[in-house]
Write a structure and sequence with these properties.
globular; OB fold (Dihydrolipoamide Acetyltransferase, E2P); five-stranded mixed barrel; 122 residues
Length: 122
């Protein structure tokens, strides 16, 4: 037991900030029954979760569109909410679960108008 604790402590001190952030994100979403974003299939229903990394207002076909990029440490998914400029509770660093059918667009995993659940802050 003490050897494992020492190894974990050594890893924390020698890991880069990016490696620690990836490990933190992967640990945060364990036990929620989610598919890792990096393994999410396209063209079939998925349930993924992650921490909000970016929010972007980008018009699509002349309609306001909110894009929310979430990351779980294995990859990123972009939730696209058409006709929305803002959704209450969605903010940088907030955890959320997305459910919908994903597709690839310009190398990004996109979920159009997904069902979503906001997770407790922390």
């Amino acid at each position: 037991m003490a050897g494992m604790a020492f190894r974990d402590l050594k890893r924390k001190f020698t890991a880069s900030v990016e490696e620690l952030d990836v490990a933190r994100l992967q640990d945060r979403y364990v036990g929620l029954g989610l598919t890792p974003i990096g393994e999410a299939p396209t063209r079939e229903p998925i349930r993924v979760g992650g921490e909000v990394k970016r929010l972007l207002m980008a018009p699509r076909a002349g309609s306001p569109t909110l894009e929310v990029v979430v990351s779980d440490g294995t990859g990123e998914a972009t939730a696209v909410f058409t006709g929305r400029r803002h959704i209450g509770g969605i903010e940088h660093g907030r955890g959320m679960v997305l459910e919908g059918v994903a597709h690839r667009e310009r190398g990004r995993l996109i979920v159009l108008n997904p069902a979503y659940t906001l997770l407790a802050k922390g």
